[in-house]
Specification:
There is one protein chain. This protein has about 240 residues and is mostly helical. The protein has one domain. Helix content is about 90%, strand content about 0%. The chain is built from 9 helices and no strands. Helix 1 runs antiparallel to helix 6 and helix 4 packs across helix 7. The longest helix is centred in the middle third of the chain and has 33 residues. It is globular.
């Protein structure tokens, strides 16, 4: 169990690694930021299509999954309305976007951590493979959080501190997943559906439009790269 939690911590820490990679280069062109935001969109869509929804459907059928998806979309819609219902400067809008992305990733890091635990219950190697896939896609997700916050002028150390706190959610999910495996395994499909709804809302209503503002064509390069990364991690 200790080794599994350590692996889960490493996977979660890759979110902070993504932010650090974004910090290395001090100035980013609009095209570069569009690629990063597009890549994060591709990663999120691919995780939902190739991983989260199929796993949820296998575990619990379509009804709890759809309930979770609609609940996730509804909650993010309400939060988005509260954050964006007034006219604001670009700086305020970007900070709100960064925190919305952080919230969405936090909400899906929890069931992802659970997935590591469930995979380990089936076979130790399966848990490790799931953790590897999570680690790979956490890097561009970290970039997705850091990009709008950097664009809004937030200090790097403050972003990194928040990312390190965010990284703790994955191992927390692994611990909870080990408990739920024995107590309430029927909740996992709802949680995965809920996280999928959050991710889809973020992509189609927030992240993708922001990428388009920075560069309509470059965002597609990032999108397909993100899709390819998760496809390879999932199937190869």
């Amino acid at each position: 169990m200790v080794n599994l939690v350590i692996v889960s911590i490493a996977a979660g820490a890759c979110t902070a690694l993504g932010a650090v990679l974004l910090f290395i280069k001090k100035r980013w062109s609009n095209a570069s930021l569009a690629v990063f935001l597009g890549m994060a969109s591709g990663v999120m869509v691919a995780v939902v299509i190739f991983d989260m929804l199929p796993s949820a459907l296998v575990y619990g059928g379509i009804k709890p999954v759809l309930e979770g998806v609609f609940l996730g979309i509804a909650i993010l819609f309400i939060l988005g309305y509260c954050l964006f219902n007034r006219e604001s400067e670009e700086k305020d809008s970007l900070i709100s976007l960064g925190y919305l992305i952080m919230l969405g990733i936090a909400m899906h890091d929890l069931p992802e951590g659970m997935a590591i635990a469930l995979g380990h219950e089936m076979k130790a190697r399966t848990g490790m493979v799931i953790a590897l896939g999570i680690a790979i896609h956490n890097i561009p997700e970290g970039m997705a959080i850091a990009a709008p916050l950097l664009m809004a002028g937030m200090r790097r150390y403050k972003i990194l501190a928040q990312m390190l706190l965010l990284a703790l959610i994955t191992p927390l999910g692994t611990i909870l997943g080990s408990i739920i495996t024995f107590i309430l395994p029927q909740l996992l499909p709802l949680l995965l559906g809920f996280a999928s709804g959050i991710m889809l809302y973020l992509v189609f209503f927030q992240l993708w439009p922001q990428a388009g503002i920075k560069g309509r064509q470059p965002r597609w390069y990032g999108f397909w790269l993100g899709m390819a990364i998760i496809f390879i991690a999932t199937f190869l």
